Amino acid sequence: MSQCLNTSVAGGEVIITTKLTFHNISCISHARPAVWLQQYVPSVGAALLEAASFLKHYNSREGGTCLWEQVSTEYFLKELHLEGHGSLTTTPCSCKCLYHCEDCYGPEISCKSCCLLKHAHHPLHIINKWNGTHFEHNSLVDMGPRVQLGHEGMPCLHPQRGHVSFVMIHTNAIHQQLLHCEWYLATLHFPQSACTRQSSKVSGYEFYASLKRLTDNTGLNVPKSWYKKFMRMVCQFHHIKLMKQAGHGNITGGIHETEPGALTTKCPACLQPAVNLLEDWDKVEGSMKFLYYLIITMYANFCLKNRNQSSSMADPGLHTGLAYFVPDKSYTEHVLRNASQADVVTGIGLCLCTHHEYVQPQGVGDLQKGEEYANMDFIFFSSIMPLLLLSVVISYDIACQWKLNLMKRMNGLPEHLQMLATVTLAAFIFGIHKFHCPAHKEKCAIPHSLNLMPGIGWTDGEGIKCNWAEINHVANSMKEMGAGY
Which band of pLDDT confidence, cut at 50, 70 and 90, is reported for residue 447? Predict the structure, then answer.
């Protein structure tokens, strides 16, 4: 056996490295050093044991705080030193130093020429200028920078000047700058504002309010509000990202040829012909047909109300009907034929696959006067079209009433949502959620009980409420949104 002890002191910390070798086997101790040394290295001195105990105490919360308190004055003086941007003699700039960047690394100070040269590719940094007594905010736009677009850094032979008061919304402030590559424009013609592409996990209002405080926390020189333009850019950018993630950037037609419901994430476990079914699946014998049921749950949520804040004309939706919501135009026309108004939203109706709780493509729609049949009919038939499976089990808390005259009401839907009566009678199976079923009368509950349906018995049909529990947290934000959001 051989042993090696290394002890060093760095910045008030005692570092002990111990290593024992037993016939080419190395053992290194990290935990409880004092006990380890007493057990394996009896010859170690009392000083090392004391140092090991000190190290254990220092690593504890109480010991670390007590030791830091002894040197807290040094931390405080260093903080003041950094706030004064260190020593001017250490700056690499030999000119008269007046400018300091908050976003660049280190406390260095430079002159105007050096600062502009350094920020040729960083035009959104925050610059402070020394006025003789303290550093005050000084935007790069006041220093006269010019940002050239395109040409890969080469000068343009026929440059055109941008707007003199171009406003840039970035993660550190609201800048009055010129246009730059990868900045998202708010308008197509003669743009005066843009934003960068960084993302955030907070709401748009909180994000913009934070930028205003970063720009001027005193409230004396608050910039003009660009919140509406910022939210419009966010909405447009999300639309482009959604199209990109759905793979519509590399197909013929691109955005304009997107089919209804194509922007959704379809349930990967639900049965889909030509995707996860055998070729002869439709020839299965009758006793095994339950294996190919499509089980749909329908329900309404009246917590997701919407105030009459905007309209489709003032704030149109960009992909309405291409994702989870039904097409706005045809849905509104159908509702107006059966209701007095369609602009006040009192809730939403939703269809999802019962087993996996995936929202169906075009399976969501606004409700105007409660849970009307006209609304739920349109949402349901939009979510199951085209019907490709043998049977559809519909779990709905009022299925016993809703199924009455369903075929007659279906004839009033748009033509692309209508089905042959013989197909619907053979394909549809109606049931009631298990929690709601006991509230129905016996003659109604028994024929609609999921417990008594072959292949459905373990299905409760209540999974849709799990979706409501999650989405209700943002109900207060959603009720202020218009059609464009």
Answer: very high
